[in-house]
């Protein structure tokens, strides 16, 4: 029974408890049963009331038509406090300055070249030797971990100019990974706890909150060193040729972007940390689910292989239409960011008729949106890349408020093209050179978190194609 009973004082929490660890599938059931919008009432005075919606009309209204009235809001700022003043949680004028300055660096030809070259080098010097070794030694590897390491190294090169070399046969410990994964889970649970409770846990250093503080402190210390050594390089007149984001923001033009603070280390940390997260976790999540779906759908794999054999041109990956369709289909069913948090600045009425108060919480359920039969048809739960291909064989466009893996409106993802390019480069390399098999009996389920990761990773064995 997806519709929850609203108890005096306790609200819907008693019925919700069992669903908190399986929130993604629950959101599909409840939104299908409630005509795409569901109002959750938390316990009295707990501040955990939320409106869940997967209604494209509401989404279009919130993210585009009435964008000014729907910032992330003060609650999101509290819940995502680890992001500080980074672009993912900033609002209003600060967000505008961050967005415009980000746009400039992300479209700079030197930055795009750095992105391409870092991918090519990481393939040659990281991924291929790693997979060759795994095939030779016949060891089980976790593809999710491999992709996270690949994306961490390439994103770090782009964002900080530094290659942490986390993808190597030795598989070194990655402090960033521990900090981020614990943080993403802790943040997820904050949605269901009164602020006072998670703040207390954080202060006492208990549970996930305590772990997150410890890991984040370790990460911040490491990052502070990277920042101070880059400042020293800059003061010695070095780093002039660097096109990474860290150097860019340390020299950013404050006459154009008045709210940015190039001299402030905390601000620089916030900006770069958010961009590292935006690039690493999303892309690695999408690639992991993609390879898992391919293992379940050999017919799709055969079509992709055929397309690569007949149409692959390393200078023009756009020709791989079926591969693109399969990636879109993966992110429809498994969007790396499963929710988007918004909060009305002023009271409003949504197109679905639901009233929303100022500063209330709205969660756009991206995961549920991709699975609604009323939106995608009776076969909504099937993995069918063909739905993305038109009769003439071109890619079919879907409006972003229906397929919103990359968000929609003025806050749409700034790294969409980089991410798609990167996923295609990695997918082609693996599919051309290796066969892989998912370990029998390996359990696949999403971890309750703000990023859609597989709980126990994706364990596979690889063999090299002859
Ligand atoms: C498959 C990969 C990716 C997916 C699915 C994805 C998805 C998204 C989504 C849903 C948002 C909105 C987040 C929110 O408002 O809470 C977003 C924002 C953003 N993404 Fe991505 N992203 C991906 C890769 C990347 C990469 C590789 C980069 C950069 C290198 C990037 C940079 C950004 C930035 C800067 C924003 C903030 C935009 C703003 O608030 O104005 N993303 N992305």
UniProtKB/TrEMBL annotation:
InterPro entries: Cyt_P450 (IPR001128), Cyt_P450_CS (IPR017972), Cyt_P450_E_grp-I (IPR002401), Cyt_P450_sf (IPR036396)
Oxidoreductase listed as a keyword: yes
Keywords on record: Heme, Iron, Metal-binding, Monooxygenase, Oxidoreductase, Signal
Keyword Oxidoreductase: yes
Listed cofactors: heme
GO biological process: lipid metabolic process
GO molecular function: heme binding; iron ion binding; monooxygenase activity; oxidoreductase activity, acting on paired donors, with incorporation or reduction of molecular oxygen
Binding site for heme: 413
Protein family (similarity comment): Belongs to the cytochrome P450 family.
Protein name (Swiss-Prot/TrEMBL): Alkane hydroxylase MAH1-like
Record organism: Brassica carinata
